[in-house]
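Database export, one record per block. Field names are fixed; values are copied verbatim from the stored entry.
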Amino acid sequence: MGVMTLFAILAASIAAAAEEGEYKPPGDFYSMQAHFAWCGEGKTVQARIKRYEQFWALQSPEEPDGYDDSPHIRTVRHCAYRLAELYTEAGRKKDCLKMLKWLEKEDDAFADERGN
């Protein structure tokens, strides 16, 4: 194996490890909207899923009243739609259905049908 081949393999491994280890955009200032946009910049479907899942874990509140404001609600729901779409692309039907059920439960428009 040539030295150049070894360096190419090492560089690819480092890049893949860096992509996997990232959970938010680099920098000292955190912006939820910038973080959400960054999630969509993953190079592969799997990388985007991982980023959105980590965003979801960070931003999706445990309780319905745990949202900070309307942009927080909209961004978390937008993340759910993105994950459902990406799960479909990745062949993860169960995960997609789980996310769609969460969206339906969280959608205020269905409150009358649920008797709320």
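Remark 1: The radius of gyration is 18 Å.
Remark 2: DSSP finds six helices and no strands in the chain.
End of record.
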